[in-house]
Design a protein that fits this description.
Strand content: 25-35%
Number of domains: 2
Number of helices: 4
Helix content: 25-40%
CATH topology of the largest domain: GroEL
Distance between the termini: 30 Å
Protein name: BBS10 protein
Structural class: alpha/beta
Organism: Cinclus mexicanus (American dipper)
CATH architecture of the largest domain: 3-Layer(bba) Sandwich
Order of helices and strands: EEEEHEHEHEEEH
Shape: elongated
InterPro entries: BBS10, GroEL-like_apical_dom_sf, TCP-1-like_intermed_sf
Length: about 210
């Protein structure tokens, strides 16, 4: 329930509504408008490649080596974005905050990016779509990307003064997600309404629970 409702203070209760899909309470880091269905990828780690494995010390002896290292990182990042583009990936949903070089190449290659998703949001999207997070720098970098989710729409959503992300997914299960936009004059009233609704949904779950006879 916390991932499937958004509380909006400063509006009358009558402004509340139900939207298809899910609403992420954060803005796009990169937004590239596109029409029709698109492919989305879930990632949990920074897409800027590391120079060494975790726990391994990397020593740079000169300015030339340092600049060469930066060029290598930039080239690998661009190659990854080209690979995503060639696999029709138009949206990245990231658990991690991405670095500026990733944001630059995402803009360049027309890939929208949403950062800093919670583990609960990632788990919900995985449940809806049936896909697991993609690991970018393991195995064959040129292989076809199969861990993509089908997105029916992806657009900004303005809730009073807060910019959010509104996404519709093609669900692989019976669960068809919808998000409740719960409006009220102040936060306290919204919290009371949200709590009452959650309790009502819990009661309905218990009421319609299958009983073994």
């Amino acid at each position: 329930f916390p991932e499937l409702h958004a509380a909006v203070p400063g509006l009358p209760l009558a402004s509340s509504r139900i939207l298809p899909g899910i609403v992420l309470l954060r803005d796009f880091a990169v937004y590239c408008p596109t029409d029709g269905e698109l492919r989305a990828l879930l990632v949990t780690e920074p897409l800027r490649p590391a120079l060494t494995a975790s726990g391994v010390e990397f020593v740079v002896d000169s300015e030339g080596q340092y600049q060469a290292s930066l060029r290598w990182i930039t080239e690998r990042t661009e190659a990854l974005m080209k690979h995503l583009q060639s696999n029709n990936v138009k949206l990245l949903l990231s658990r991690a905050k991405q670095e500026e070089v990733v944001i630059y190449y995402a803009k360049l290659y027309g890939v929208s990016l949403v950062e800093c998703l919670s583990s609960e949001e990632m788990a919900l999207i995985s449940e809806i779509t049936g896909v697991s997070p993609y690991t970018p720098f393991s195995g064959n970098r040129d292989r076809e990307i199969t861990e993509t989710a089908v997105v029916t729409f992806c657009q900004p959503l303005l809730l009073v003064s807060k910019r959010c992300v509104h996404i519709g997914f093609t669900s692989v299960c019976a669960f068809q997600p919808h998000c409740l936009i719960l409006c009220g004059p102040v936060d306290g009233v919204n919290e009371q309404h949200a709590s009452a609704l959650q309790e009502a949904f819990t009661m309905l779950q218990q009421l319609f629970k299958t009983v073994d006879r």
